[in-house]
Amino acid sequence: MEEQQGEQGRKAERPRKKPRKVSPRYLENAALHYLKRYAATESQLKRVLMRRVDRSLKEHGGERTEALGWVDELVAKLRRGGLINDEAYAGMKAHSLRNSGRSARVIAQKLRLKGVSADVVAKKLADATAELSEEEAAKIWARKKRLGPFRTNTKTREENRQRDLAALARAGFSFAIAKKIIDSAG
Predict the structure, then answer these.
(1) In whole angstroms, what is the distance from residue 32 CA to residue 75 CA?
(2) Whole-number pLDDT of residue 172
(3) Residue 152's pLDDT is what?
(4) Whose CA is closest to 110, among 127, 125, 131, 130?
């Protein structure tokens, strides 16, 4: 046991790898590698690339404005090539979140944090809500979290009513919807 802890301690002491010098080709390879693994919006990809740029400039020096230009050109190229599409990302994410029982408020907030424009958020949220209403999403969330009628111990249902209402409110659902779900038979 002690031997394993010693090995882990040595791994933690290993110096960080120096970042490579930033170039347009390096940024493109980094972007493609990132997009291979994750769906991303334009602003997310820019943030990832700018972190790499900043680390590289700190180590090797150079002009940040020049690197910023490379990042902007690359993002435009990837958008033209269809590898980055904020609308498609927002649609996919909105439907996924809605089907997992998330409220319209939470979905809109998550999409805005990812850098999706407000009009795209509104459009994709309306599409997701057309398929699954806010009340149906609240029911899914209550079932997942075992709230109200979905409690395993029905004797504690009344005792935990306020707590369950608060949990649905924190999840972004209105009081009227939360009350309807918690007071329903299931």
Answers:
(1) 11
(2) 95
(3) 85
(4) 125
What are the tokens at 61? Answer: 């020096």
Q: Does residue 27 carry a pLDDT above 90?
A: yes
| Region of residue 178 (phi > 0: left; psi between -120 and 50: alpha; otherwise: beta) | alpha
Amino acid at 156: T
Distance, CA of 11 to CA of 168 (rounded, Å): 43
**Cβ neighbours of residue 64 under 8 Å, at least 6 residues apart?**
53, 54, 57
**Distance between the two ends of the chain, CA-based, in angstroms?**
50
Does position 14 have pLDDT exceeding 80, yes or no?
Answer: no
CB-based contact 49:78 (threshold 8 Å)? no
**Contact between 59 and 18 (Cβ < 8 Å):** yes
Length of the chain: 186
Q: Which pLDDT score, from 0 to 100, does residue 18 have?
A: 86
Average pLDDT value for residue range 128-142: 95
Please report which residue ranges of 81-117 form alpha helices under DSSP H: 86-99, 104-113
Which amino acid appears at position 63 of this protein? E
Which among 57, 67, 79 is positioned nearest to 27, based on CA atoms?
A: 67
* Residue 132: DSSP 8-state: S
